[in-house]
Specification:
This protein has about 650 residues and is an alpha+beta fold. About 15% of the residues lie in helices and about 35% in strands. The chain has a domain of about 120 residues: YVTN repeat-like/Quinoprotein amine dehydrogenase (Methylamine Dehydrogenase, Chain H). It has a 5-stranded mixed beta sheet, with no helix packed on it. The chain has a 4-stranded antiparallel beta sheet with strand order 1-2-3-4, with no helix packed on it. Strands 5-6-7-8 form a 4-stranded antiparallel beta sheet. β5 and β6 form a beta hairpin.
Length: about 650
């Protein structure tokens, strides 16, 4: 037994010695898990809360593993174009952050494994060879080390509240009404296109990935309304049969793939074109030929004036005024009117620079244009024929003929927020203006700016708040007397032209647009009611006027109204009747005045008061003047009279005076 004990002690000593030397211990086969990947694994991340393991490497694929099932990954994320260098799981935000060796950052949804966001090196401005990366959860930022250290702040969009009805999961770029089929077509930043029934608000169809992983930026219809044209950040235009989601044509630009900002479909003397503008600063015209069966189309040669005298900055908007006028606007505030038949420039308009203080003085971009077509068709020289938005929330009216010039400019927005959409009725009688605070303003422009420059704004008929965030598009459906609005708050709403709330596309209860009883009116969307910016603005906060000045203004207004009313009454009496005599006035007073007995104390008070009949007549003719409301100068109170009854003191003084006189 003693020998066995010595052998055990020697064995324990040897194990302790090996542990002290730091020699590696081989794990038992039942105490390890092996995850086999065919190519090299360069990075991994483990989340204990969700019990997930991520691996990434040379094959550019992010694999999601269950630690207890090493044989096959439970999910695979394929989007990187270079080897994966960094992985991080944020359990609190339910996000996966990944970065590849080409300095591309991607954000994934942990639950459904969708790619939510991609930051390319050009957008994030990360240059150089990637050496290290770390996610800082407390400030929600990604720290990247290359030739320099970059800090990327990742802003997470809040999830919609349970009671909030949304039309899309992503911010809505624009929506249009198709009068041929009675449909509403909307597109979002997630490259999702949805088709809705206008009369009921029901979702009819949707198709995703219209431009791959890139966002959609604009859409329009052809003249027949049977085809849908969309533009995206990939620099391409696509023509769709939107009823079945089939892509018919793809319109490409050059090899740079510059973003398309706006597009429109035009007809010029039976020739049909699709016009696109964007970051390439050129007007790209695609001839729509029904006999061209090629899937890819190239643009027509550029106009000579477009190459030599065209825009010097990114083009943001393009609109057409039949038959031959085309207007484009750019980021630097320049507006160019083109003759589509000759390709020459008709005139150039420059947005005025704001004179007063601005938070962003360099922002002179013009992102929306609208023709007043009835005026432009008559070539009225002095009348305003074009409306544009401008800096600091301004709306500008332009005259285009016989010396193009600015005719009128005003700011409709309450907070000087930038105008994001403008639409006018068919007869150019009414204009609907929307801003980035979600407000919609209605103006009567029937006779506005017809005879030259105007200093005052047009008459504001009505305004209401349609969304809690920026309105991206407005669409008038005049035949049904309805207004369509979309916003970056992921919501599309339908209103009457008077601002009555009909409903939200995507809500559970369907409406009948022809039956007002099925509308939501007089209800208002819940998120608008609880938003602080929906509160009415008081005159003190809206203008630089003090409260004392407003009180005086209101008092003066009341005094003027009373004096004018009295003047009208007296003038009417003078006109209708002759002035009454003194005897008639005395008789009327004696007949109407009630006979009241005076109290004994009142009789004594009057009998004891000495009557002074020698007052000067000037005291009876003194005029009353208003005294300025100035606070009196404070005086030190008399502490000696504290505790005394002032009524008794005054009464004793009067009694002593009366007895002394007697």
């Amino acid at each position: 037994m003693k020998e066995i004990r010595d052998v055990k002690k020697d064995g324990k000593v040897r194990k302790w010695q090996q542990a002290d030397l730091g020699l590696p211990q081989r794990r038992a086969e039942g105490d390890q898990t092996v995850f086999r990947v065919h190519k090299v694994v360069k990075v991994f991340s483990f989340c204990k809360r969700n019990n997930l393991l991520l691996t990434g490497g040379m094959d550019r694929i992010i694999r999601i593993w269950n630690p207890y099932i090493p044989g096959k990954p439970t999910g695979m994320l394929k989007s990187h174009l270079a080897p994966v260098f960094y992985l991080h799981i944020s359990a609190e935000e339910k996000r996966i952050f990944s970065m590849s060796t080409d300095n591309t950052v991607k954000v994934w949804d942990l639950e459904n494994h969708n790619c939510l966001f991609t930051a390319c090196p050009k957008a994030s401005d990360i240059q150089g060879e990637l050496t290290a990366c770390h996610y800082l959860s407390n400030i929600k930022a990604l720290c990247v080390a290359t030739d320099s250290v970059s800090l990327l702040h990742l802003r997470m969009r809040a999830r919609p509240e349970p009671h909030l009805v949304v039309s899309h999961k992503e911010p809505i770029v624009c929506c249009r009404y198709n009068k041929t089929f009675g449909h509403v077509v909307s597109c979002s930043e997630g490259s999702v296109i949805k088709v809705w029934d206008f009369e009921t608000g029901m979702l009819l169809s949707e198709f995703i990935g219209a431009h791959g992983n890139e966002d959609i930026t604009c859409l329009t219809f052809d003249s027949s309304g049977r085809r849908l044209v969309t533009g995206g950040r990939d620099g391409c235009l696509r023509i769709w049969n939107y009823n079945n989601g089939h892509c018919l044509k793809t319109l490409t630009q050059d090899e740079k793939h510059n973003e398309v900002c706006d597009c429109t479909y035009v007809e010029v003397y039976q020739n049909k074109y699709i016009i696109a503008v964007g970051w390439d600063r050129r007007i790209n015209m695609y001839f729509d030929s029904p006999h061209d069966f090629h899937h890819f189309w190239k643009p027509q040669p550029h106009w000579p004036d477009d190459l030599t005298r065209g825009h010097k900055d990114d083009i943001l908007c393009v609109v057409q005024c039949p038959p031959s006028l085309l207007a484009t606007s750019s980021y630097d505030g320049e507006i160019i009117i083109w003759n589509m038949i000759s390709g020459h420039i008709h005139c150039k308009l420059n947005t005025p620079v704001p004179t007063h203080h601005s938070e962003d003085p360099e922002d002179r971009s013009v992102s929306h244009l609208t023709f007043l077509k009835t005026r432009a068709a008559k070539f009225e020289s002095r009348a305003a024929s074009l409306i544009s938005n401008g800096p600091q929330g301004s709306v500008t009216f332009w005259s285009l003929f016989s010396g193009a010039q600015l005719v009128a400019s005003f700011i409709p927005s309450r907070g000087k927020s930038q105008i994001s959409s403008i639409v006018v009725t068919t007869g150019d009688t009414c204009a609907y203006v929307a801003d980035k605070l979600g407000y919609v303003y209605t103006y009567d422009i029937r006779d506005y700016a017809l005879e030259g420059p105007k200093q005052e704004p047009p008459k504001n008929v009505k305004f209401w708040r349609a969304h809690v965030n920026a309105v991206t598009s407005l669409e008038l459906i005049e035949k049904e007397k309805a207004l369509l609005s979309s916003s970056v708050d992921c919501i599309i709403r339908l209103w009457s032209m008077d601002g009555e709330y009909i409903g939200t596309f995507g809500q559970s209860e369907l409406w009948d647009v022809f039956t007002s009883a099925s509308w939501k009116h007089p209800m208002v969307p819940y998120e608008i009611l609880i938003d602080p910016q929906s509160m009415p603005v008081h005159q003190v906060s809206a203008e630089d006027v003090s409260a004392l000045q407003i009180d005086h203004m209101e008092e003066d207004k009341v005094i003027q109204e009373k004096s004018s009313a009295k003047a009208e009454q007296t003038s009417d009496l003078n006109i209708l009747e002759d002035p009454p005599t003194d005897l008639e006035i005395k008789k009327e007073i004696n007949m109407q005045a009630p006979q009241k007995m005076r109290l004994p104390q009142e009789q004594k008070k009057n009998s004891n008061r000495p009557f002074n009949s020698g007052w000067h007549n000037a005291y009876h003719t003194l005029k009353c003047h208003e005294v300025a409301n100035i606070p009196p100068i404070g005086r030190k109170p008399d502490v000696s009279i504290i505790g005394t009854d002032f009524f008794k003191v005054i009464l004793k003084k009067r009694v002593t005076k009366v007895t002394s006189k007697d």
